[in-house]
Amino acid sequence: MPASLTKVDTFTALDECFTTDLAAHTSRQSPGRSLIPTRFIDLVEEVRDLLADSRLPHYEDASDDLDHAATCLTDALTEPGADQAALLA
């Protein structure tokens, strides 16, 4: 019997994996529910800015990574006809 594939909502998976950790960096509690894409990107950008302001080299590196992630997320969610799952992966 062939294995069946379950369609995965990639954005929901990202939200579930990272929202709590990102919120912790802002000294806020996790929202306890899934975020809409624009709010998730806002949270990524907020943490990016906090890390950049720290002036610590390893935090600045993490800020650069989050900046790249925010760009990729925005592209994946706003490009018409884009393969969202591929762009988010």
Describe it for me?
With 89 residues, this protein is an all-alpha fold. Helix content is 67%, strand content 0%. It is built from 4 helices and no strands. The chain has helices at 10-25, 37-53, 57-78, 84-88. The longest helix has 22 residues, at 57-78. The two termini are 28 Å apart. The mean pLDDT is 80.
List the helices and strands and how they pair.
Layout: H1 10-25, H2 37-53, H3 57-78, H4 84-88
Helix pairs in contact: 1-2, 2-3
Give the radius of gyration: 15 Å
Helix count from the secondary structure assignment:
4
Give the SSE string: HHHH
Largest sheet: none
Overall average residue pLDDT: 80
Structural class: mainly alpha
First and last CA, distance = 28 Å
How large a portion of the residues is in β-strands, by DSSP E? under 5%
**Poorly predicted sequence stretches spanning 5 or more consecutive residues:** none
Helix proportion: 55-70%
Shape: globular
- Total strands: the figure is 0
What structural keywords apply?
89 residues, mainly alpha, 4 helices, 67% helix, globular
Describe this structure in a few short sentences.
This protein is mostly helical and 89 residues long. Helices cover 67% and strands 0% of the residues.
